[in-house]
Amino acid sequence: MKSVDDLIKGILAGDFKVLARALTLVENDIEPSSALLRSLIIKNIPVVGITGPPGAGKSTLVNTIINSFLNDDKRIAVLAVDPTSPFNFGSLLGDRVRMSQQFNKSNVFIRSVATRGALGGISVKTLEMLDILKASNFDLILVETVGVGQSEVEIAGLADKTIVVLVPESGDEIQNIKSGLMEIAQAFVVNKADRDGANNFANNLKKMVHQQTEIIPVFKTVADKGEGIEELLQWILTPIKLADDRKRFLLADKALKLIQHYKMKDIDQQKLRLAVDKAFAEVSFNVYQFAEEYLKRS
């Protein structure tokens, strides 16, 4: 087991083996993960969140962005947030298939992280693992989140910029998009833009975003052919400055999530389910009374 000092040195140096070890420690609450997190010097590395419905081509877009940055000799980290396995509560490791072409590249670090049941697709473990990467020497960090649609708003709290990827077939759902993803998108990408209806869908999307107080760009790409990527890359590379009050709000929100996580850390979900099963057999079962009494016993 490496010491905290050794882990910090390896993280600063961008040692992939040390990074992988540190992320495993943090994800699974294995000591010295808490001391490691307290010792981090978190750098101002740009974080871009990429989200959107399943099948929109998020992973293909990520691959294309990676390839473009590697041409400039940049170092890139990717956190691929996957659904939690119902069997072992770990990530289903979908990125291992989707991004296989990147794994042998020395300047690309890719890691899966399970949602762990987080409705927004982002767990506290994701926040902590992201901070490990931000303490290293990457030029860009991409977070690709599980495509769960409008509930995936939590990515806005951890990314400097959030890209929502859609396809022309999303046109029928444009009102739903307006009520949900519009709140978190700083840019829309209409991917697979060589399909029928792409121009019409992109134009409708532009009309919608122009109604907002903040201008939200709409890019058209064909990620698997590398088309339309340059303009998107220029936008990604343009620095964005968050207002101090926005920074404080996001930090307070992050602190709240961490406190909630540590408060719930000792609750064993399997034991909780067994206790509910036993209590449910009683005619007088009341979930509020049960929860209060369970907390007292825990």
Describe this structure in words.
This protein has a seven-stranded parallel beta sheet with strand order 3-2-4-1-5-6-7, sandwiched between helices. Helix 5 (95-98) links the parallel strand 2 (76-82) and strand 3. The protein is α/β, with parallel strands linked by helices and 298 residues long. The protein has helices at 4-13, 16-27, 33-39, 58-70, 95-98, 124-134, 174-179, 198-209, 229-237, 244-264, 269-280, 287-297, and strands spanning 47-51, 76-82, 108-114, 140-144, 161-166, 187-190, 218-220.
Shape: globular
Number of helices: 12
Label the structural class: alpha/beta
Strand content: 5-15%
Helix content: 40-55%
Largest sheet: 7 strands, parallel
Report the strand count: 7
Using the CA coordinates, give the radius of gyration. 21 Å
Q: Determine the N-to-C terminus distance.
A: 31 Å
Give short descriptive properties of this protein:
seven-stranded parallel beta sheet; alpha/beta; 298 residues; 12 helices
Topology of this protein?
Layout: H1 4-13, H2 16-27, H3 33-39, E1 47-51, H4 58-70, E2 76-82, H5 95-98, E3 108-114, H6 124-134, E4 140-144, E5 161-166, H7 174-179, E6 187-190, H8 198-209, E7 218-220, H9 229-237, H10 244-264, H11 269-280, H12 287-297
Parallel strand pairs: 1-4, 1-5, 2-3, 2-4, 5-6, 6-7
Helix pairs in contact: 1-3, 2-6
